[in-house]
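Review session, final week

We close the course with one last complete record, chosen because it touches almost every idea we covered. It is histidine kinase, a protein from Desulfobacula phenolica with 553 residues. Go through it on your own first, then we will talk.
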Amino acid sequence: MVDFTAPESTIMIVDDELEHIESLKQILDQFGFNLQLAMNGYKVFELLEDTLPDIILLDVLMPEMDGFEVCRRLKSNKTTKNIPVILMTSLTETVNKVTGLELGAADYITKPFQKEEVLARLKAHFVMRQLHLQLDKTRQTLDDEVSLRTMELTKSNEQLKKQLAEHKRMEKILKQAQKMEAISTLSSGIAHDFNNILSIIIGYCEMAAMEKQPDDSKIGDCLEKISSAAFRAKELVQHLLTFCRQTEQEKKHIKITPILNYVLNYLKANFSSSIEIKQEIREETGTVLADPAQIHQLILNLCQNAGQVMTEDGGMLSIGLKQIFLDPESVSEYPNLISGHYVSIVVEDTGPGMDQEIVERIFDPYFTTKEPGEGTGLGLAVAQGIAVSHGGTIVVASQPGKGSSFEVLLPCRQTESYKPDIKGDQTLPRGSGNVLFVDDEDALVDFGKIVLERVGYKVEGYTSSIEALEEFKKTPQKFDLVITDHIMPKLQGMELAKKILKVRGNIPVMLCTGTKSEELIEHAKAAGIVEVIQKPIPMKTLIKLINNILAKK
């Protein structure tokens, strides 16, 4: 229950007759209320500017502004509308009471005042006022709790959305990884079969070139073109394997053009038709000492970044490749570079461009101008890292509304393009010994026997690794060397080598493969294999390797 005696509570008495005010004061003083006194309606609103009472006792009949008008104004004001108003009047007509109640009055006290009536009505409305305030406080507490819980739920929902977005992103990464693994497996099989075919083409082409030709014959020129095309095909297979391999590759001297063409084919298949691709590629640009997979990643990142800024409005993506020379004066414009020849890869777009502030931060990790979920902010940072790790740099030029240009500079070594020496000295080194030659391709076994027997070796060839193993077990001391393919049905080359070495541990074994890798070489060495050969291999190289191995026995 609410205590009626509440000194902290305030009652405002409004009456134009002083004796009525004094009469009410005598009744209320004994309860210790704070009293506010007003003898007209205007004074009411002056007092309300300082303190809001808990209850207002309001006389109806007053000059200038009567109680009905005061009540109407009080109830139309947001600040005072909830203060209970008890009208005091000697008017007993029902119409007057109804008018007051319609204006928002809470109750009536009739004149002359009866102490018991005043106290009873005040007590009732004071209790209701206190309960109303408690209700408002409880409601506010509940509203605050609901707001807090809503904020917490909203925050949890945002976190859940971020987690779901991250989950989807990881799913895409996983799917891409699985896709690349499948492509890698498929490429490995293609490389094996294709390199077997190339070994036959290159081998027989070299053998044909050894035959004496009439002086006016064009056969030698034809064989040279066939061999050159075969070695180009070999490089193409190697590029396919490089792009699909997930492990870090060793740097080697490579040409940028095949990598750039590979990226362009990907972009043409995946970019929107609203983006036009223009290319200006000079073939003779020398070679760079680089990791092919990382250079591929660098170029792809720059092109994808350019494509993304033109997604909405379309535009033109221009890709250029050339060789430049930086003299001591011009090289000062490029940080961390020295004077010399460089391969220049330029990626330009006609997108919205960037201001200088963004250009200065464009290579910062995780910095991005894209919407959330559209990028990680690592693409350009990775590209810059790759360029720097290869002794180069990336230079950016951009202006708002005028597109952007990214120039990659990589130190190059000027070399002449490879041409097989099909017309050169065709004298093959001689050798002697018994060779066990194993390959699941009939044509490669036939070719191996022809080549090795031509220079003095005795060769037993098998297309079945199991049959070769059984033959070796019969007379293990008969053979001086084993040459085996890696990928074969039933019993693969690595396992064949292990079983042969288990029978006779000192026999040299050479492993031929179309997919040579550091991991394979390590496993081969651990198994006791003396040499891992990448197919296809020129005859001279093969024979020299065999002679060197047998010379060490």
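Two points worth writing down before the exam:
The chain has 15 helices and 17 strands.
The longest strand covers residues 315-326.
Good luck, everyone.
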